[in-house]
Amino acid sequence: VSVTSSDAIEDLDCGYIITRTWIGEDACGNTTSDSQTITVIDTTDPEIVTSPMNVTIECDQAQPTDVPTFSDNCDMDLDVVPASSTQNVTDCGYDVVQTWTATDDCGNNVVATRTITVVDTTDPVLSGVPANDTVECDAIPAPAVVTAEDNCSDAPVVFSETEVPADCGSTITRTWTATDVCGNTTSESQVLTVVDTTDPVI
Fold this sequence. Notes:
The protein has 202 residues and is mostly beta strands. It contains no helices and 15 strands.
């Protein structure tokens, strides 16, 4: 008896059916056949191969652009949909939650997630603070106009001044302090030594 086999394939929405038929034939041309039906399906979710790590960055830094990679047992061209949302917003930072959903042809899916925590830990920078100086008692300059720059928010400048008398003059300490909304602070001072080296006038 000689035996031959053949396969017939019927496509489904997700998978296919193989109808495998064997035919046996003897020397007189008598035949018989039998079949097996193999239904091929995909119920396995894709897998995450690499996933971006959670990170913490300063508010003036660019957000990372790396993305996850996926694999699947059947579908070599997965549909990957990225999305992001902003959460936990405060005056001093926020979280960016990134998700990537990978879906195969049969609707099986997996989600990769990464959280980017945005913070402000950088002190403001003052500009225009004058250097220490020695001045005559009748030529004390007006306080300088000092400004501040911050990487994330406004940083108002607060001015203060103290004077300590001496035997012949005084010491004036002028301080400028800038504080941003996250409480990061920087201060710089100018010390004026006030003297009297001028003779009286008759």
